[in-house]
Amino acid sequence: MIEMKDVYKKYPNGVMAVNGINVKIDQGEFVYVVGPSGAGKSTFIKMMYREEKPTKGSIIINGIDLAKLKEKRVPLLRRNIGVVFQDFKLLPRLTVYENVAFALEVIEENPKNIKKRVMDVLELVRLKHKARFLPDELSGGEQQRVSIARSIVNSPGALIADEPTGNLDPETSWEIMNIFEEINFRGTTIIMATHNREIVNTVKKRVIAIESGKIARDEVRGDYGYEA
């Protein structure tokens, strides 16, 4: 589903964030991306949904090379890739329901389908009862669950999560992981960048470790491998 071939990313300031990466991620996998701060994880993640473009190489997602993708086609790509951020990125004046529905409204989904799909994903993230709440009426963990619901309401083939538990306490982090596992069980590919050593070492999944812009390890059931 996702393949990087000889990918490099050099920023204008001369920093080589990604330095010759080759990797393939199949449909339905759950992959952790780990590594020290500044290792290139965020750039690696951002290139998968075309927030960043590679300086060199190809990134193939469902047969489409993101390096050659025209800007006007990027929104179409992002309908098939959900993204969850550390800081939630919710619209503060919209309710929980409206935040999730917005992802369908912008692609002009049939209004008859919107309510059912929104309520289905809110039930999955256990927030159906707070559909009419505003983001500032929710806890951090609840806001992240709204962010997850919004990212999957389009039924994307892949979900990319950049430090999704970074601002959350341990108990809430495990609640988020349980939801990710359920989403993955239903067939969605998950790529999760994280510094959470306990989660990686407890919930065994494939681990891709990035150091100095290169893949240092790629293990089927790996450990975090770094000091906390």
From TrEMBL:
Family: Belongs to the ABC transporter superfamily.
MF-aspect GO terms: ATP binding; ATP hydrolysis activity; transmembrane transporter activity
Sequence ranges assigned to domain ABC transporter in this UniProt record: 2-228
Protein name: Cell division ATP-binding protein FtsE
UniProt subcellular location: Cell membrane
CDD domains referenced in this protein's UniProt entry, alphabetically: ABC_FtsE
GO cellular component, one term: plasma membrane
Gene3D superfamilies the UniProt entry points to: P-loop containing nucleotide triphosphate hydrolases
Subunit structure: Homodimer. Forms a membrane-associated complex with FtsX.
Keywords from the named record: ATP-binding, Cell cycle, Cell division, Cell membrane, Membrane, Nucleotide-binding, Transport
Keyword Cytoplasm: no
Gene: ftsE
Biological process per Gene Ontology, one example term: cell division
Topology within the bilayer: Peripheral membrane protein
InterPro entries: AAA+_ATPase, ABC_transporter-like_ATP-bd, ABC_transporter-like_CS, ABC_transpr_LolD-like, Cell_div_FtsE, P-loop_NTPase
SUPFAM superfamilies reported for this sequence: P-loop containing nucleoside triphosphate hydrolases
UniProt keyword ATP-binding present: yes
Function: Part of the ABC transporter FtsEX involved in cellular division.
Signal peptide boundaries: none
